[in-house]
Structures are given as structure tokens and as C-alpha cells.
Amino acid sequence: xxxxxxxxxxxxxxxxxxxxxxxxxxxxxxxxxxxxxxxxxxxxxxxxxxxxxxxxxxxxxxxxxxxxxxxxxxxxxxxxxxxxxxxxxxxxxxxxxxxxxxxxxxxxxxxxxxxxxxxxxxxxxxxxxxxxxxx
Length: 135
Description:
Elements: H1 16-45, H2 56-98, H3 103-132
Helix pairs in contact: 1-2, 1-3, 2-3
Pfam families: PA28_C
GO cellular component, one term: cytoplasm
Family: Belongs to the PA28 family.
């Protein structure tokens, strides 16, 4: 456990379980984002020629491209949420260190860790769903 020297009531350690899951999830998000970018680039260079009366291929490709774009937006929202957690936890730890007599600050740190754990489960489930989605 990585624990800095902390206030008299004890340091607030890094939550190793959450950090490990966070690292793995960030890697999965990064991999998925790269794959979506590659797919998006490939689709853009494969645009079929628009012909009179038969634009079905173009319409299908536009719909798929829209789906890929929406998925990439969702993945970017996951990245933003994970970055927000680090900032919020850092603020809560700083408050707990500054006011060690206020137990609610220490409790807040643990609540943030629990919240992120649940969020990571949802994010990983959604990543799995993105890979297996067949729409």
C-alpha cells in the first residue's frame, strides 16, 4: 500500500483495488478508442459513389458512421468521468489532511472510491457491449 505520512488520525492511502481497476479500464478505453478511430478513418475512404436512384449503400454507410461517432462520444465521456474522479478524490484527501478532525472528509474519500468502483463495472460492461453489439 502506498501511504504518505498523514494527519494524526492516520494517512489516507491509495485504494489499490480501485487503482488497479482504473488502470485496466483506462487501457481498455484507449484500445477501443483507437479501434473506433481506425474504423472511422477506413469508412471515410470507402464512401461509395452516389448514383441516381440507388443511394442505399451511401445511406447504410452514413448510419454506421453515425453509430461509430456516437460510440466514440460515449467513450470520451467515460474518459472525462475517470479524470474527474482523480480530481475529486485529490480534493477530498486534501480536505481530510487539512481538517483531520472532520470525519466526513475521510468518509467522502471512501465514498468516492466506492462510487468509482461501481462506475468502472458499468464502464467495462458497456465496453463489452460495444464489442458484441450487432445492430
